[in-house]
Design goal:
The protein is an alpha/beta fold. The protein is built from 16 helices and 17 strands. It has a 5-stranded parallel sheet with strand order 2-1-3-4-5, sandwiched between helices. Strands 7-6-10-9-8 form a 5-stranded antiparallel sheet, sandwiched between helices. Strands 12-14-15-17-16 form a 5-stranded mixed sheet, with helices on one face.
Length: 551
């Protein structure tokens, strides 16, 4: 890091619990200069000269951020990262790497490092990485606080209802409710407005066990039961009024609390805690009963939504890191193509210029595919299916894939069954899915230098209820470990040129139509992808919980 750059270092806003940072580097000079910079930025800096010392300090001090060199004697940066993530997954780890260690840096991102910075360290780049780490810490804390606040709110609501039963002065506490709902029969709308926004099922009942009013959530989940009987939401109950909470309230004159099973308007049954509150007129006579029913499943639903939001935010952050490195590889290819084209034109060597132009076209196609993959991943969409001829669909896919296959002098063999029939498919996402698999086959052939000529075979045939596509190549093949991870989100075996989205999205598209993908492969023997596509989609949901973070 240039010494003068410390004067321009940006400041950070952080809580006291987030300012502890562990710096691990075997170079004393870097530890000293970076330590001063980080301390001036407001961090409490802990330093370690090797991986073992860093682990010891980490376990004692629990810093929220770790800044570590990749290459250290003994326990290196990657091993330190693995151990930290296994013991305290929420720790933000930023890797320091040399320009020659880019592959190791990308491997660290697959192990869920927050970011990496290259030597010599630029203070602005480090500032951005530290800011990103603090933003992730702050986001996790906010989500945690929101979850706790939600649970406390539900607990407080339940406690209030229980406490209301036990208060000796319950009559005085309910007098305000009594006056608000007195003469409810003539002023129902004004009364209902008072509890429209309550997060539970609320209803008002008269002495004839008739439902006078319900709040919107009640109407949405249980149906518009105004005018119906008090016991009807409890399913197999009859007109014996003492079997429902409202009936027991009118009979005893006291508030009731019980666990019940309520029946939704669609027939589903859910457990609920039901409370009733008697409402008396000015003469002290019991006139109405207010019933509150709290659906336990609603709390669980909110928890699941919060967890889904957390998972989505984590996946989107990881996707941005993965895609950015994929795009860097594409830009490198574009630079090479432009150089070849310009050099060929200057020397009037048209073969070289054509080679450069071909490289540029291939990189532009990769950019297009990355954009399509990102759009599919970032936005949920329902299937927009239409009936198409299998032969027409297959020919369209091959027309898009053929230029790239020809550029690499790969033989394309097409085996199309006679009259494979029709199927219902969303062409807008199905065609790119098969193109992803074909692109994978091309890359496998290009990477294999052991054969003078390569071949890709595309097959399409129909069976009862199914359309089967097979894409077979004689390229480099895959190990068992790669086959196991190949459909995981952000896993890529292509180094800088892959984003880890293509095959994941291909599988999601096929699954969204109700189909399957099977793969057979062995190192040096090529691969065969077998896609079984139902003629009519059997389900229309998109997987929302990718299970890997291997970019």
């Amino acid at each position: 890091m240039p010494a003068g750059s410390l004067l321009n270092a940006p400041s950070y806003r952080k809580s006291a619990m987030d300012n502890k940072l562990l710096l691990a580097d075997d170079e004393e000079g870097i530890r000293k200069v970076l330590g001063i910079y980080l301390a001036d930025s407001g961090f409490e800096v802990l330093t370690a000269e090797n991986g073992l010392q860093a682990l010891d300090i980490f376990r004692k001090e629990h810093p929220s951020i770790v800044l570590t060199d990749l290459r250290m004697p003994g326990v290196d940066g990657l091993e330190l990262l693995r151990t930290i993530k296994s013991e305290r997954p929420d720790t933000e780890v930023i890797m320091i790497t040399g320009h020659g260690d880019m592959e190791l840096a990308i491997e660290s991102l697959k192990l869920e490092a927050t970011d990496f910075v290259t030597k010599p360290i630029n203070d602005d780049v480090l500032a951005i990485a530290l800011k990103r780490a603090q933003e992730r810490i702050a986001m996790r804390r906010q989500l945690h606080e929101y979850t706790e606040n939600l649970e406390n709110l539900v607990r407080q609501q339940a406690d209030r209802l229980v406490e209301a039963e036990r208060l000796a002065a319950i009559g005085q506490a309910l007098e305000g409710i009594s006056s608000a709902f007195r003469d409810m029969a003539g002023e129902v709308e004004g009364g209902v407005r008072f509890f429209n926004e309550m997060p539970c099922f609320v209803s008002i009942h008269d002495r004839d066990f008739k439902v006078l009013a319900v709040n919107p959530l009640y109407r949405e989940r249980l149906g518009d039961r105004v005018g119906g009987r008090s016991w009807e939401i409890y399913g197999e109950r009859n007109a014996l009024t003492d079997t429902c909470p409202v009936g027991r309230t009118f009979e005893s004159g006291q508030a009731q609390r019980s666990r019940e099973t309520i029946v939704y308007s669609d027939g589903r049954r859910w457990p609920a805690m039901v409370h009733t509150v008697p409402i008396r007129n000015s003469a002290g006579e019991l006139q109405l009963v207010m019933e509150f029913a709290i659906d336990f499943s609603e709390v669980e639903r909110l928890r699941q939504e919060l967890q889904a939001t957390q998972d989505r935010l984590a996946s989107l952050g990881l996707m941005l890191s993965s895609v950015s490195h994929g795009v860097k590889g594409i830009l490198t290819g574009l630079d090479a193509g432009v150089y070849l084209a310009e050099s060929g034109l200057r020397k009037s060597e048209m073969d070289q210029a054509q080679e450069g132009l071909g490289t540029i076209k291939e990189m532009v196609e990769r950019v297009r595919q990355v954009v399509l993959d990102v759009l599919y991943f970032a936005k949920e969409r329902a299937l927009e299916v239409k009936r198409v001829r299998v032969a027409d669909f297959a020919e369209g896919v091959l027309a898009l894939a053929s230029p790239k296959i020809r550029r690499h002098s790969i033989e394309l063999v097409t085996e199309m069954a006679v009259n494979p029939g029709e199927f219902e498919v969303d062409e807008g996402i199905a065609a790119p899915a098969l193109l992803n698999i074909l692109d994978n086959a091309v890359d496998a052939c290009v990477e294999d230098r052991s054969k003078p000529v390569h071949r890709i075979t595309f097959r399409a045939r129909g069976e009862e209820g199914l359309v089967i596509f097979e894409i077979e190549d004689d390229g480099i093949g895959m190990s068992a470990d790669t086959r196991e991870k190949m459909f995981n989100l952000f896993f890529s075996s292509k180094g800088k040129t892959g984003t880890g989205l293509g095959l994941f999205i291909a599988q999601q598209v096929v699954r969204q139509h109700g189909g399957t993908i099977d793969v057979t492969s062995a190192p040096g023997q090529g691969s065969c992808f077998r896609v079984c596509w139902p003629r009519v989609p059997t389900k229309v949901e998109k997987s929302a919980s990718p299970d890997a973070h291997s970019a």
